[in-house]
Structures are given as C-alpha cells and as structure tokens.
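Usage example:
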Amino acid sequence: MSDTQTFLDTLATRSQQRAGEPTWIAARRQAGAARFDAMGFPTRRDEEWKYTDVRAIAKGNFALADNAEFSQAQAAAITLPIDAYRLTFVDGVFSAALSDVDALPDSVQVMPLSKALTDNHEAVGGPLGRLTGVDFSTFAALNTAFMEEGAVVRIAPGTVVEKPILLQFLSRAGTPVMSHPRILVEAAGRSEATLIEHYVGEADAANFTNVVAELMLDRGAILNHYKLQEAPIGDLHVASIHVEQNRDSRYTSYNLNLGGALVRNDLISDLNGQGAETNFYGLFFGQGRQHVDNHTKVNHNAPLTFSNENYKGILDDRAHGVFNGKVYVKRDSQKIEGFQSNQNLLLSDRAQIDAKPELEIYADDVKCSHGTTTGQLDEDAIYALRTRGIDEATARGLLTLAFAGEVLEQVALDAIAERVELAVAGKLPERFNLAGLVEAAAALND
Amino acid sequence: MLQVNDLHVTVEGKEILKGLTLTINAGEVHAIMGPNGAGKSTLSAVIAGKDGYEVTQGSITFEGQDVLEMEIEERAQAGLLLGFQYPVEIPGVKNIYLLKSALNAQRAARGEGEMPAPEFMKLVKEKLGFMKMDASFLQRAVNEGFSGGEKKRNEILQMLVLQPKLAMLDEIDSGLDIDAMKVVADGVNSLRAEERAILLVTHYQRLLDYIVPDKVHVLVDGRIVKTGDAELAKELEANGYEGIEESVA
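Running the assembly step on the lines above writes:
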C-alpha cells in the first residue's frame, strides 16, 4: 500500500460519516485528495524538502480524534496564562468547554470553522483556499482534503481588538491521531489585532498536526501574529502560513518553535500594495534529535514595500535545523527594502544547521541585504562571566539567552517571552532577574 | 591574604613560571613589573583560573584556601577578582545585568540575600559617577563597541561594585591616555583599604606615579628576582630591565 493510500482510506471512512455539507466543500475536498494522491509525499530529492525527511509522517498511521476531552486543570497547567479571546482544539476537535469568546465586541468574529460553515458557509467559501491552494504542497492538499475544523477570525474596519485572540491546539497522548486545522483571518482596513497560535500538549503525545493558515490584511491593517510551537517532543508538525497584504498594512510574525520531533513551517507574505510592511521574527530551539525546518518567503509584488527578517536558531545535542529564507522582488517593484538575517548557535558538536538565504530581484532600485552566520558560544565570554562569580551553567544560559535577545526583545507578550526564556536558558536563579531595576533606575533619575 | 609558593606553570608544554613565590597581606598594594614574556599575565591568569595553564609545582592559597582546587566562579565569590588587560565583549548581556548577577552571586555565596533593587541602583550610580561614566553604559552590552579606555573604566567599575578582597589588575594602564589613566587610578586608589589588597601587573612605571605601591616585584624569566618599594620602580624606569637581568645572571 502506498503512503498516500493510508491517508486516503482514512479520508474515505470520514467522508461516509459526513452528510449534508455544502457541495463546494465536497468539491474542494475531492480536489485536495486528488492533488495529494497525485503529488505524493515529498522526498529529499525535492529541492524544497532537501534537508527534511517526512517519512515519519508518510509511514505513520494516524486516526482522527472523535472527541475533545481534556481536563480543565490540565489545560490550565500548560496553556498560556493570559487574558485573551480563546478557542481551544484538542487533537483538532473544537472544545467549547475550554474556549471563551463571550466578551467579543460585535466588530470582531472569532469562531470555530465548523460553526462558520454551519452559520454561513458562503461567507467562508470565497476566501478559504484563495491564498493556499491545493497546488502549494502535498500538505496543503492533504489539509484541504481533511479540512473540517479550525478558526475563522473576522475583524471589522477600523476595529482595534484590545485583547489577543488565542487559538490553542492541545495534543493528547494515546493512539496517534492527525489533525488538519484551517485558520482564516480577514483583517479589514485599519484594524489592529494580535493573534496567537499556541501548540502544546501531553508529554507522551505523538500526533501529527498539519495546519494551514490564510491571513488577509486589507489597507492599513495591523496584525501581530505569534506562533508559539511547544508541541510535545514526539509530535509531528507541519504548517503553511500565507499572508496577503494590501496597501499600508503591517504584518509581524513571531515564529517561535521549541517543540516537536519533526517541524516544518512555510511562511509566505505577499506584499501587494505600496507601503505594506512585513516583519518576520523567528526563533527555533532544538534538542535531542529534534528537526526544525523554517522556510520563509517574502514577495515584494509592489513598489515601496518593506520587509525585515531576523531568524535565530539554537541547536543542541543532535538536533537539526533548517533555515531557507527567500526575498523575491517582482519586476519593477522599485524602492523596496528587504532585509534578512539568520544566525545560528550550535551548542553541541553533533548539532546541525542547513541555512540558505536567497534573493531574487527583478528591479534595479532596491535596498536588499541578507546574511547568515553559524557559531558556538564564546568560551572567552563564559570565562569572563565566571571570573565575576557567575557559575558556568548560568553563564552558558545567559549567553544563549543573549543570542536569542534580538528576537526575544521583540516579543511584547511576557507570558510568551517567559516560555521561550525558560526553554533556551533553563530556569535562571532569581538573582539573575532584572525585575525592579528599571523602576529603581527611573526613580533615581527623578 | 595571598600566598604563592614556588609556583611552576607551563603553557602548551613550555614552562613560563619557574618557581615564583609571593606573599600579599591585607592593606598592601603590590606591583609586579617585568619585561614582555616574563610571565606577568600568566600569574594573574593562573590565580583567576583560566584554562590552558598547567601548574606543575607549587601552591596558591588565599585566606587559607587552596585556590587551585576552586572553580573559577568560586575564586571570584571568595573575593579574588581579575581586571583584564583585554576585557571581553559580551554581546547581548547588558552591563547592568552583569553587575547585578555578579554582585548577587557573590552575596549568595556568602549566604546573604539579594541586594534590593533601589539600593543596588544607588550603589551603581554612585560608582558610575566616580568613574565618570554615563548612565547609558548600564544599558549597553558588556564592552561591546567600547573604546579601549571605556573598557578599562568598566573593569574598574566592576571592582568598585563588587569590592573584592584582592583586586588583580592586569596591565590596566595599557591603551589609556593620561586623562583616562587618572580616572582609572582614582578608581583603584579608592579601593585601597586595610582589609583589601591590590596587585598591579604592569609593564611601565608611569601607572605607579598615580597608584603608589607598597611593594614592587621584578619578574624576569618566570621568577621574582628583586623586591623593593616604590623607588625600585623608578630605578627600573631609569635603567630598564636589562641591568636587573644581568645582575641575576
């Protein structure tokens, strides 16, 4: 039996259970399945997958979860302790009990995809799949074939959403399951919002998540998009994020990857109108035998568009990281600025990074730069810190944290920054906490 | 306070210190002078615990403790502090962070609690002022992009905040213009106290016009060949090391 057949059989069984869904969805699903079958899983002979082996997914046998049971206490222990509009999915299944969007103003809609399809499926049919078609990748096609749950976010023109919108995806231990969440965000003109995707779960879980997110920013919209991927160490995680930016919009991605056995993120921004700006901040931290692959692409499709990218990789043990970042400047997209930086820190001799920055420019009046470096902790700096009384483990933690600093400083949400700090630097003793100093310094200046 | 006894040290198989003996008591300022390659920096590096130096013979004790058995950070926590000739740049670690971490690590080692933030800031501001450093230094990464003089002042700032029992200053005058040297010397002189000792390692006598030592040792070819008072440094200035080396031979 071929690798794709296992998935198609599961799909066939699922389809029989469905009834009365709109014909357009059935048609999309079929197109996704057909495309998935035709393409098959990528191999390392595919340029886009040269460094990432997906056999752990292809050879897997994943069921579909049929419930969203998860204890409140356990969820509280692992989810982000922040005040947010919250949708929760357990192995891909929506959990009303762990969600709370009651206080949403009328100008903001946040709902599970299943509800959006039930309430008004025509409103979903147009935008869904517009940015991520089934041809994008095997995984996008597979997601389309299975899509039934996820999140739909709509923000009315000029609305400033005060609280973050948090989509949390919990992964359970037990029989391996797969989920194919679909996220659709439509941010209307001059709206402002913060979206958080959070992946986390039970330590022994070994599930496959294949998410597709389509984010549409209309004129002047601002979207801050945090992805905190803390999936269990046995989880397989594939994500495609496509962003469409109209004039003067600003999209900022914080792509923070700490978990998962096999992780692949594709992040693509289309800068389609003058004045649009995209910022990609990324941090990936791998230990053990984790494999983390980030593919990013910025398409400067219009003149006077701006992109800024800074990805930091920290790899320990036998972890393997991949960074592939492309900046594309369309013909005659003049006066654009595109900056890209990737720095990697290898904490062990057996850790590995494959970094490939790419520029593809078809305009002559542009400002672009890119660069990638890979290094190790500076032993002289560790020595210097130790000669001031700081123990070696803490010195290494501080320097690792300092390496991540440029990206971490951008993270405005403390609850997220703390998770990342804890992961990369270990629990630093209280005396290394700077809390209180800023206020004390300010008071002295008065 | 510090006793170095018959110390032999090799670096990459080559013997650099060949039986160095030195005693420093509380309240004293010592200067070690000598030509390039005599082993001046090796001595302070071995006391601080830098890798790559093999002690083949002899001992170092600090307040009765065997220094060579102590981890690098334990030496610092015990009050042995080295000011570097070439201070290391530590990108991403703010000066204020280093000062606070180091001070609290030292306090923790003594079983004391953290210094409260307002008290700490007051202390740091006072010392900054003394070293004629702007408060913006606190927010800058340790030594990153600092001029040579700023780096040296920063080393002394750390000393003033951490108040070591024995401050070792390795070529603290190198690369300093006369104004910067006065500031650095004022900082060092402010450390002089009955309960504290200072060890200056220097190539030139000029620093000793500003920081007058109680004892001057001449280090030649891995051994202290002559010890005297501040006058000895002036003799060296006048006659150079050659006369001394000849008298040894």
